[in-house]
From TrEMBL:
The protein, known as: Sulfotransferase
Segments of skewed composition (Low complexity): 108-121
Signal peptide: 1-20
Signal found in the keyword field: yes
Renumbered residue ranges of the record's region Disordered: 78-188
Keywords from the UniProt entry: Signal
Positions with biased composition (Polar residues): 86-96, 122-146
Entry-linked Gene3D superfamilies: P-loop containing nucleotide triphosphate hydrolases (3.40.50.300)
Amino acid sequence: MPSRAHKWIGRAALLSFTLSILLIDEPSIVPASDQGTHVRRRLEDDQEGKDKTAEAQAALTALEKAMGVLDEIIAAHDANDRDVPSESQGVVSSEQAADEENTADESAVAQADGGVDQQQQETDSTPQDEATDSEQQTDQPSAQEETSQEIDTASENDSVKKAAAEALGEAKNNRRDPAPQPVQSREKYFGKVFPETNHVDMPFYLRNTFEPSPLKPEDRDIIFYWHIPKTAGGLVKNIMGMCFGLKRAEKLKEPASLEMVHNVIVNVDTSSPEGIAEAHELGLVDSNMVDFIFSSFVLSASSLFTPQHRGRAFTIIRHPIDAAASNFHARKVKHPELRGKYTLAQYAAKNFFIDNWVTRQLTGTLPHEELEQRHVDQAKNILAAKFFVGIYEHMDETMRQLKAFYKWKALEGQEYCVTDLIHGANPNFQKTYRGKPARGSNDWAFVAHVERWDMELYYFALEVFSKQGRIWNADEYSLIETSTGDKSY
């Protein structure tokens, strides 16, 4: 029969090996001036990232099976010498207590949130809230260094017990909650109205990205900004309005109407299913009063467009792990009683966490429905055909490309407006920094597994973004307008 030291060394070695497999690199953030070149150079590395995401899924499955076998062996061993006190018995008790605490906390989270189905659909009410989602740049240790540190620790028996107990507890706590996702109605999750679609389920009246503009004088395209939560939606809305003078719909007072408020906002809500249905009844798009529609409900909002007023869409995508971390921190700020209750991985393991939000929204797949490869393939096709793609981590380059694509002209005296807002010259948009999970950490690896379909979609979006940069290159289209006669739109 193996000794207790051997048991814990075995566990630590298994967990160390698995964590070393799960080290997934994130795309680095490059200076705005070198976006076009550097993003293209990252694409080969991004392919490796996609492969590692698949490896992570397989490794986690193997880890669960291996831990189950180890648990049986240790349980049998403990039964033979139960009368002998040991540190490992204390560890088991701690794990059981933690499991009980997490079970009790789950109901508290659901009550505090006021409904789990609104988790990913919340949009921030002020630009300041969105502006706090900037990334903190930190140097992370390499995979080889972390693995080496784990092996060195395993040489000391006491340290092995402590490290193994913590790692095993994390792995157990972070297993996806076996309880099924709450069943949600299609109307509540996607909206009350849906667009006409073609034979491959693409919204019919969203114009293809590279399709020519309308030729008839009575026809007019309207910009559709599909806002993915935690991607600086408030900032982008204000750039479009303050820097380029674009008019939008936003309900500022009751009742909803086609009244123009402050010369830039039509008093109609497009951010909720009820508001979109009301916008239909009021004929918002046919009124010719707005330049862009802003909504997180991609399918429902797409139904607003008509043959005479088609939508020309764009969206901004963020790394799924960073987006999950931002949402996690925002919820803790909103509900202070939840601070310290969960790690990010434990939060993502709960059945109220809506995984792969972007893929689900594009394909009309409800949270309780299982995603497959065909869903992310469909999401890629829709994204490539119907959306001009921006990347949250490359906001300067994103705004430069959008400005060129839509041929936006800065208002008089607002030539530096975009860069000022992005980089915080306006105190309302001063950015703060919050931590995000380190690459290769337990949180990073587990969330990468849970969000594996959105991870694949994000890497695909990077490829689309790079291709756009080659078409609307920085040599011809600049972000800051000049008087030298270049193609600065």
